[in-house]
C-alpha cells in the first residue's frame, strides 16, 4: 500500500517547488545584503503562483497550456538562479550553508 502523503512528481509541481525555494533563498540573501543592494531582485511570485494553480487544478491539462506553464516556470527559475548567483558573489561569507544544498538541487532540476 502506497503512502498517501507522497505526491506524484510531475514536472510542473517540481518546478513550482524549486521556484518557491529560490524565492525563499532570495528573500534570505536580500536581508543580508540590504545595505549593498538597493532593490530586491524580481521574482514575479504572485503571477507564477497563479499560473501554477490554474494549470494544476485542471482535470485534464492540454499539452499547449502545460508546455506554456512549464516554459514560464523555467524562465522564472533561470532568473532566480542568476539573481542568487549574483547575490552570492557580493557576500564575503556564506550565511546559508543549509540552504546551499537546496540551491544545488534546484540548479540540477533547472539543468534537466
Folded structure, characterized:
The protein has 112 residues and is mainly α. It is 69% helix and 0% strand. Helix 3 runs antiparallel to helix 4. It is elongated. The relative contact order is 0.19.
Largest sheet: none
Amount of helix? 55-70%
* Overall radius of gyration: 16 Å
Give a count of the beta strands, DSSP E runs of length 2 or more: 0
- Oligomer, anyone? single chain
Q: What is the residue-mean pLDDT, rounded to a whole number?
A: 85
Q: What is the terminal separation in angstroms?
A: 31 Å
Low-confidence stretches: none
Q: What amount of the residues lies in strands?
A: under 5%
The SS-based structural class is: mainly alpha
Describe the global form: elongated
What order do the helices and strands follow?
A: HHHH
Question: Helix tally?
Answer: 4
Features:
mainly alpha, 4 helices, 69% helix, 112 residues
Which helices and strands occur, and which strands form pairs?
Elements: H1 11-32, H2 45-56, H3 63-90, H4 97-111
Helix pairs in contact: 1-2, 1-3, 1-4, 2-3, 3-4
Amino acid at each position: 500500500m502506497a503512502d498517501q502523503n507522497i505526491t506524484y512528481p510531475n514536472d510542473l509541481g517540481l518546478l513550482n517547488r524549486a521556484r518557491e525555494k529560490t524565492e525563499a533563498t532570495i528573500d534570505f540573501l536580500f536581508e543580508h545584503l540590504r545595505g549593498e543592494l538597493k532593490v530586491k531582485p524580481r521574482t514575479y511570485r504572485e503571477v507564477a503562483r497563479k499560473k501554477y494553480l490554474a494549470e494544476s487544478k485542471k482535470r485534464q491539462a492540454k499539452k499547449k497550456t502545460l508546455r506554456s506553464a512549464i516554459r514560464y516556470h523555467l524562465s522564472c527559475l533561470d532568473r532566480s538562479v542568476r539573481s542568487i548567483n549574483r547575490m552570492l558573489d557580493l557576500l564575503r561569507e556564506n550565511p546559508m550553508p543549509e540552504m546551499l544544498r537546496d540551491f544545488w538541487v534546484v540548479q540540477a532540476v533547472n539543468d534537466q
